[in-house]
Design goal:
The protein is an alpha/beta fold. It has helices at about 20-25, 45-60, 115-125, 140-155, 185-200; strands at about 1-10, 30, 35-40, 60-70, 75-80, 80, 110, 130-135, 160-165. It is built from five helices and nine strands, in the order βαββαββββαβαβα. The longest helix is centred in the last third of the chain and has 17 residues, at about 185-200.
């Protein structure tokens, strides 16, 4: 089995992004699956384009994207991507769409076809707080989750994809009183556990499944 795992470059004035640091530190093999690593630009259209280029090049069985979610205290396994771009801040290329679709004429939403409940349970079993999330936001993270799912449905229907949000690093909240954080080691442990659940679930899920 082969899994493409992606992270994002820093954005929003941050100098670090835990998702990139986790992806860069992943071993080349997890639970017997070959791990292909890719760091994405935090840019509206460029990020999903790079994912699909990597899918074409490497032919993975699944794509698991990792992103930073400041303000969240637990690892969030996303279940839903919505067809909406509504950026609170500009992306790294200065794009700041408001009330625009990710894909004009596309479905209102997609459900991930990775086993989100099993992923959450696997993360919790290794001692890391985790939850299912029903909102990936309306920034580049959601854009990637939606656009990649849409493109896979059209071009590679047998490939699964999903998204995990991880909290800020402790170093990122030194000047953000009250903001939760998670160590890089714990985030690493969580992502590895989630990958194990994807492998054990023989991703992608069977037709008609809805992320259970």
């Amino acid at each position: 089995m082969k899994i493409l795992v992606t992270g994002f470059e820093p954005f929003g004035g941050e100098t670090r992004n835990p998702s990139a640091e986790v992806v860069e530190r992943l071993p080349d093999t997890v639970a017997g699956a070959e791990i292909i690593k890719l760091i994405l630009p935090t840019v509206r259209y460029e990020a999903p384009r790079k994912v699909m280029q990597a899918v074409k090049e490497h032919c993975p069985d699944a794509v698991l994207s990792i992103g930073q979610a400041g303000g969240r205290a637990a690892v969030s396994v996303e279940r839903v991507a919505v067809n909406l771009d509504d950026y609170r801040i500009p992306d790294n290329a200065g794009n700041q769409p408001a009330d625009e679709p990710v894909v004009p004429g596309g479905p209102d939403a997609y459900l991930t076809n990775l086993p989100v409940k099993a992923m959450v349970e696997a993360i919790q079993r290794v001692g890391v707080p985790a939850q299912i999330s029903l909102s990936a936001g309306t920034f580049v993270c959601n854009h990637v989750l939606y656009q990649v799912r849409h493109d896979l449905e059209e071009r590679h229907p047998g490939v699964g994809n999903g998204f995990i949000h991880i909290p800020f690093l402790p170093e990122q909240v030194v000047d953000k009183p009250g903001q939760p954080s998670m160590s890089l080691d714990l985030s690493m442990r969580a992502v590895k556990a989630a990958i194990c659940a994807v492998v054990e679930g023989n991703c992608p899920m069977t037709a008609g499944a809805t992320g259970d």
